[in-house]
User: Fold these one by one.
Assistant:
Number 1:
Amino acid sequence: MRRITRIATVGVASAALALSATACGGKTSSDSGSDGDKAAIAYDIGGRGDQSFNDAAYAGLAKAEKDLDVNGIEAEPSDGESDADKVQRLTELARSGNNPVIGVGFAYAPAIKKVAPKFPDTTFGIIDDASVTGKNIANIVFNEEQGSYLAGVAAAKVTKTKTVGFIGGVETPLIKKFEAGYVQGVKDTDPSVKVLPQYLTQPPNFDGFSKPDLGKAAAQGQLDKKADVIYSAAGLAGSGAIEAASKASKWNIGVDSDQYSQAGLANYKESILTSVTKDIEDSVFNLIKSVKDGKPQSGEIRYGLDKDGVALSMSNPAFADMKDVIAAVDKAKQEIIDGKITVKSAP
């Protein structure tokens, strides 16, 4: 698998690709000239190694390499990059014969809107955005609010201080969905529990998805206010919150990936009660498979509780042993699927 650190300009993109490619997954940059199917993912802020959102997308690409004999290409973002940088990145990936080309995160919407029409035979996927549409665009979206509701149920059941926290990386409509579901789940379970919501940055500053020190400071502030369960939807910045809560012997709720199982968070895993997972891995794999099979997905592809597209992870044995908590979560899940509970998508 090839990993591209960045693409500086379209005019020198080919050279940049050759010079900045690094070996990963047992493959080298020489693979770029080989025959066969190629698929690419362009990472969101924080890049691979965030133990969360981007790593879940990488897992889908790695699965496609293994199961579908697809040559995977990874492209990393640059700090403080513009939409023009994303346009250049996606353009070069498409020109290089990758199909599909997947933008990991809603920030790629403006770039895909510009690039997709220029490559009508290439499928472009975008995760967490349905605003940009086209015949060759697959919009992979999730009911994050539903999974977050279940996290709220769990938090309300385990808190001893009657105070829980929510940390959002950047205050965007997407992250507001996480907050809305979580707060509703808490309040529906126990109205007496106080929820402390906090966002790390405001657009256009997206450091709240990439800087662990911001998450750590926010979590410490919530701990000081007696929060004993903290749910972070903040990408790489969330790892700082996890560290802070772990050192205080309080509970964390992870996001996107099963963070209890992430190697980079192994020192704090016992504090990770559960995680609100999004099946980004399978969504990426399914899109790549659809292209390889000659029936490329397009339009909105939604993953919710009804399809296990969002869920609470059960990896932590301590959580799995909380029978009353699990029963409450399972009951809420079924009621959401049955339409008895409608989860808000905004606070």
Note: Residues 5-34 have pLDDT under 50 and may be disordered.
Number 2:
Amino acid sequence: MAIAKAERLMNLALCLLGTRRPLSKRELRESVEAYLEAGSDDSFNRMFERDKDDLRELGLVIETVENLDGEIGYLARRDSNRLPAITLDAEEAAALGLAAKVWQQARLAGAASGALQKLRAAGLPEDVDPYGAHGALEPRIPVHEAAFEPLMLACRDRRPVLFDYRKASAARPEPRHVEPWALECWRGHWYLAGFDRDRGAERVFRLSRITGRVRSRGTGFTAPVPDVVTVRETVASWAGEIADRSALIRLRSGAGYPLRAKAVKVRELGDGWDELEIPYGHGLDAWLVEFGPDVVVLEPAELRADVVDRLRAVAKG
């Protein structure tokens, strides 16, 4: 059915683009083979109206013209549906080439290569090598998570999704019903930003913590999509990188080098331990847990309690 509809839309588009005068519904029905198979006038009218709307949604400009006899006709003028000439200098071509090269190891490799071929056909000079000026650069965006492609399509089509998500502090995943807004790669990990329906608020999800299959839900969005989705800033905040105070911890000597890199002050305690003052922001407890027995939180008390709770949850499995 999908192939038949695509062929029908293509034939209708060719008819509308190929005519010099408006064509009536009757003439279009006689010109498009699929319309001849319509069982009744009502069936044809419904099919034609859907196809016309689909073509307009795809970007085809279809004009509706009424002749002197009051009959309605349709056509798609070539000048209204022709893209302007594309002119790219060497730097612009290189930028587009690098952008396409990023996706060569991902599922979008075919689309990226096809886009470059279209640019060639549209007038990109053959002697301009999109990769040549920056041949030493090998950009890559790793996409290993199975959830990436269905989430990317859901963001594009504005479709809610349902998936199981395991938080860093949780022993087992929980279902999440999300209206997806945007995907972004930050420090080697992919994140999804969207509206969590169950919690009634914006949330950011790390794709590597999504388990099982991403299922689509046909209903539309219930919350407005913000004009700017700040995925990286939100992740940085939740990761404790936006700090508004300090924490005091004990760190085993020779361990925890990422913590040492962030330390404001370091003091040797002896017996194989150091005392560090580090920036404290939301999510620091989850990060400290990753260092296990090499870290002991001294203050503040609420941070110490959060770390202890997370360690107990991990111990329970």
Note: The chain has a mean pLDDT of 80.
